[in-house]
Amino acid sequence: MSECRSAKSFKRHSSKDGKEGYYCSTRLGGDWVLAESKQVAKDCVPAEVLAAYLDGSNQKKWNEDKVLDINIARSGSGLYRQDMVLKPQRVLTGKTTIMRYTQKVCVDKIGNGNYNAFVELDTKSKSNTKLRPFHILKVNVGLEQVGNDVHIYAAGIMKVNRKIIPNLVIFDASSIAGAMAGKGTLWLSKHFQDRSTKIIRNNRIE
Question: For residues 200 and 113, which has the higher predicted lDDT (pLDDT)?
Answer without folding.
Answer: 113
